[in-house]
Write a structure and sequence with these properties.
With 495 residues, this protein is of the alpha/beta class. It contains 22 helices and 18 strands. 43% of the residues lie in helices and 17% in strands. Strand 15 and strand 16 form a beta hairpin. Helix 11 runs parallel beside helix 17. It is elongated, with a radius of gyration of 26 Å. Pathway: tRNA modification; archaeosine-tRNA biosynthesis. Its cofactor is Zn(2+).
């Protein structure tokens, strides 16, 4: 067990946790955003990140520091915390990004981790290979082997209280991602970044990003704090948290500002195209859109970077609130509606619903059915699986709200799409307190039929009757033939 990470609350695979960073003497609440600080080009002073934005942790690049002589001397002399003016935790990257971009960086894991330790980093990183998407399998396997060796080399080092990242690679091969996650979790290392997903996000391949992270999570243990390297756009953070990611490093706030781009939770706008500022952060409250458009480039970049960071931190807080209230998946769905590729990501998330169900709490806030995809949520799967816990008499009426005939039954159970059948005594129990439409859609009916099928298979000696409110033909086809079907609409018409 990793005693430096404690999970305090959860929803789907998302969680609110506490990451203890002993070398910094702080505890970071997760999900957490790590603003990226380039030591040579600082857009927002780290002390302001702490005092004005509430940042508890940031990330900077030890390879850049090591190769910038004057910065290197200062870092070795006074340490990172004094150099940057930041009291929270500081994570350092190793140069793996530069390795992926430019080839050999001529530094070993032992050398760069020792340098990170010597400049006062709180969380260090070995030199792994971020294998990009779509490479040949042989390349992915070979580079994963190099990353595994880097983890072994890091694990063998004495670094005192500094935590060490154990990157999880494997390109777009789910089995390699899962293997890499299992290997990393078996080490004594501390934080587990899922790497090389930035190309997927940049090309809006969110479904494949979801599959890669889900595979890595299958290999990792529940108590592994997971960092999604390079994920910092507020639009996708809820999706990533629902997958089980805890840490996010964002350079987007500064990089987008440099191009005059204005971040929102629904996407990105160019400041020159805006007529209004759809935000109430300090920047948007104190400036008009015309002021932001007309200030000089340097000032505009600064103001946009601050706005972008405010929006991103606000989304992190919104996600935490959603986890606490038990409606994280509703937030994910709202964000997914902002772009078709995000919707693909949400659907891919629900493809892993059995995996999510293993970590999803059994009781939380009210379930809201707001789209057909909600029929595939973990709560529905769990209800169907737990039907084997119920005692079922010989003759049972399953009804959406009425009695179709004078036939006597030993029990009358309710049917609520998408969950399906349940004894009425459970009506006040989660998730059957769900808010669902009065006119359920096809997907909800088909999911309810799957629950009926499961109940029938568990109780082959019971005679079941289903009283439904005009289910679609494919939903009725999914109900076992041994179940008597009665239409409540037909009964009402006869009366």
């Amino acid at each position: 067990m990793r005693d430096h990470f404690e999970i305090r609350d959860a929803d789907a695979a998302g969680r609110i946790g506490s990451l203890s960073v002993p070398r910094a003497g702080v505890t970071v609440e997760t999900p957490a955003l790590l603003p990226v600080i380039n030591p040579n080009v600082i857009t927002i002073e780290p002390r302001r990140l702490e005092s004005e934005f509430g940042a508890e942790i940031l990330i900077t690049n030890s390879y850049i520091i090591r190769n910038t002589e004057d910065v290197k001397e200062q870092a070795l002399d006074v340490g990172l915390h004094e150099l940057l003016g930041f009291n929270g935790a500081i994570m350092t990257d190793s140069g793996s990004f530069q390795l992926a971009e430019y080839g050999d960086i001529n530094v070993t894991t032992e050398e760069i981790i020792e340098f990170q330790r010597s400049i006062g980093s709180d969380i260090g990183t070995p030199v792994d290979i971020p294998t990009p998407p779509d490479v040949a399998r042989g390349q992915a396997e070979d580079e994963l082997a190099v990353t595994k060796q880097a983890l072994r080399d890091a694990e063998a080092m004495d670094v005192g209280e500094m935590l060490i990242n154990a990157p999880v690679q494997g390109s777009t091969y789910p089995d390699l991602r899962e293997e890499a996650g299992g290997f990393a979790a078996a080490t004594d290392l501390d934080v587990f970044p899922v790497g090389a997903v930035v190309p997927l996000m940049n090309s809006y391949r969110y479904a494949e990003m979801v599959d890669a992270v889900a595979a890595a999570k299958r290999g990792l243990a529940v108590d592994c704090p997971v960092h999604l390297f390079g994920a910092g756009h507020p639009m996708m953070l809820a999706l990533a948290v629902a997958l089980g990611c805890d840490l996010f490093d964002s350079a987007a706030y500064a990089l987008y500002a440099r191009d005059g781009r204005y971040l929102t939770v629904d996407g990105t706008e160019h400041i020159d195209t805006l007529e209004y500022l759809p935000c109430s952060c300090p920047i948007c409250s104190e400036h008009s859109v015309s002021e932001l458009q007309s200030v000089g480039d340097t000032k505009q970049e600064q103001l946009l970077a601050e706005h972008n960071l405010h929006v991103t931190f606000e989304e992190i807080d919104r996600i935490k609130s959603a986890i606490r209230q038990g409606n994280l998946l509703e937030l994910v769905e709202r964000r997914a509606r902002s772009h078709p590729a995000m919707w693909d990501g949400y659907k891919a998330l629900l493809d892993h619903t059995e995996q999510l169900e293993r970590e999803d709490p059994v009781s939380k806030g009210t379930f809201f059915y707001t789209s057909s995809d909600a029929a595939r949520r973990p709560e529905v799967t769990r209800h169907h699986e737990r039907l084997d816990r119920l005692s079922v008499p010989a003759r049972v009426l399953l009804t959406e709200g009425g009695t179709p005939s004078e036939t006597e039954y030993d029990a009358v159970w309710a049917v609520k799409p998408p969950f399906g059948p349940y004894p009425k005594e459970l009506s006040d129990s989660y998730p059957l307190t769900a808010e669902v439409p009065e006119r359920p859609d096809r997907s909800a009916q088909v999911a309810a039929a799957a629950g009926i099928k499961r109940l029938v298979e568990l109780n082959p000696e019971t005679a079941f009757t289903l009283a439904h409110n005009g289910w679609t033909p494919d939903a009725l086809d999914a109900v076992p033939e041994t179940v008597t079907r009665e239409s409540l609409q037909a009964v009402q018409a006869d009366r």
